[in-house]
């Protein structure tokens, strides 16, 4: 695939690989010298075993590399390259720098400087908390919620407040099961503690280890998190479970809460007896995507259509509203 941006600075392939400069690929496999993982979510560590075999290095923040190890990826020490935020490293006359991103523990944006210009890739993010990269020739931006039809009418703080109230209401009568993705679960544990939820937390061993890593990242001790070993839970506890296990756990006694950014009706929606959706997402809203581009003012924008919905709309909107050349890829 030929890169679509001027001077071949950036592009998104059909398998979701974000190509930056001549030497770097982020968030999916492509035959490039260096693989970058912006954060430890499955659609962003896609093809990592192939990258480990074929690339000379795998770059991520120290927290992301730790989470990947917990998830079972074995990156040889001589290929594992932890990179702190805002510390550039030169490889084959191109400089790569990871910038802070608000998404999950360890998330990063990527900036690559070449002899032909500067390219940036947001990865997944939300505002506030993600400083826009400026002075870019081309920006590749995530647009998971790529049009106003996916807008939520409440803030993250309101969603988390509602979640805490729902947990407190039901945990008095037995366990509360909270379902979400890795990263989101750990963030929610921290936020529930900050909102005064004191009941015992339970999670499987892998999730507990990820909580320990996230606690260091957020610099917040979530306290007692016990290891859930399966079966019914009889004590008042909050059990954090990967969303993929909802079908096997939903018959368990207690209240069941799914964290999802795709619930657009209300902040809390009852979907069955003792079953609820709470509308909480770690992705930028459509308005936040536009606000990011408005502040960053790159010369050109590529909207990631592999992971986003209505990416074509985002691109057209940016062109019309901001007067910046934009398109969706792939």
Write the layout of secondary structure elements.
Layout: E1 10-12, E2 18-20, E3 24-26, E4 34-36, H1 48-54, E5 57-60, H2 62-70, E6 80-82, E7 89-91, E8 94-100, E9 108-114, E10 117-121, E11 138-142, H3 156-171, E12 176-180, H4 184-194, E13 200-203, H5 205-218, E14 225-227, E15 237-242, H6 246-249, E16 255-260, E17 268-272, E18 275-279, H7 286-296, E19 300-304, H8 311-322, E20 325-329
Parallel strand pairs: 3-4, 4-5, 5-6, 10-11, 11-19, 12-15, 12-16, 13-14, 13-15, 16-18, 19-20
Antiparallel strand pairs: 1-2, 2-3, 7-8, 8-9, 9-10, 17-18
Helix pairs in contact: 2-5, 4-5, 7-8
Description of the molecule:
By secondary structure, the protein is an alpha/beta fold. The protein folds into two domains: 6-149 and 284-329, Ribonuclease Z/Hydroxyacylglutathione hydrolase-like (Metallo-beta-lactamase, Chain A, 4-Layer Sandwich), CATH 3.60.15; 156-279, 3-Layer(aba) Sandwich (Rossmann fold). The protein has helices at residues 48-54, 62-70, 156-171, 184-194, 205-218, 246-249, 286-296, 311-322; strands spanning 10-12, 18-20, 24-26, 34-36, 57-60, 80-82, 89-91, 94-100, 108-114, 117-121, 138-142, 176-180, 200-203, 225-227, 237-242, 255-260, 268-272, 275-279, 300-304, 325-329. The strands form three sheets. It has a seven-stranded mixed β-sheet, with helices on one face. A seven-stranded mixed β-sheet has the order 14-13-15-12-16-18-17. Strand 17 (268-272) and strand 18 (275-279) form a beta hairpin. The longest helix has 16 residues, at 156-171.
């Amino acid at each position: 695939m030929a890169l679509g941006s001027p001077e071949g600075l950036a592009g998104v392939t059909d398998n979701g690989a974000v190509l930056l400069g001549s030497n770097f690929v982020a968030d999916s496999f492509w035959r490039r010298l260096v693989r970058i993982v912006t954060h430890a979510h499955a659609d962003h560590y896609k093809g990592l075993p192939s990258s480990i075999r074929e690339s000379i290095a795998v770059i991520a923040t120290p927290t992301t590399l730790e989470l990947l190890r917990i998830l079972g990826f074995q990156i040889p020490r001589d290929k594992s390259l932890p990179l702190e935020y805002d510390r550039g490293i030169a490889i084959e006359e191109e400089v790569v720098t990871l910038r802070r991103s608000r998404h999950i523990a360890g998330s990063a944006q990527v900036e690559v400087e070449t002899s032909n210009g500067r390219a940036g890739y947001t990865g997944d993010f939300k505002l506030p908390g993600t400083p826009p990269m400026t002075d870019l020739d081309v920006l590749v931006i995530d647009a998971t919620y790529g049009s106003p039809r996916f807008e939520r009418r409440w803030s993250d703080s309101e969603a988390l407040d509602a979640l805490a109230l729902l947990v407190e209401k039901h945990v008095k009568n037995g366990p509360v099961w909270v379902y979400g993705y890795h990263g989101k679960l750990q963030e929610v544990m921290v936020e529930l503690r900050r909102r005064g939820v004191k009941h015992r937390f339970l999670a499987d061993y892998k999730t507990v280890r990820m909580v320990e890593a996230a606690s260091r990242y957020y610099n917040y001790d979530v306290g007692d998190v016990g290891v859930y070993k399966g079966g019914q839970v009889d004590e008042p506890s909050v059990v954090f479970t990967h969303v993929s296990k909802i079908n096997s756990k939903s018959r368990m006694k207690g209240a069941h809460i799914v964290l999802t950014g795709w619930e657009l009706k209300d902040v809390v929606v009852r979907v069955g007896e003792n079953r609820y959706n709470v509308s909480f997402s770690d992705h930028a809203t459509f308005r936040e995507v536009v606000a990011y581009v408005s502040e960053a003012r790159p010369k050109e924008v590529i909207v990631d259509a592999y992971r986003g919905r209505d990416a074509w709309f985002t691109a057209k909107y940016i062109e019309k509203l901001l007067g910046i050349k934009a398109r969706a890829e792939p």
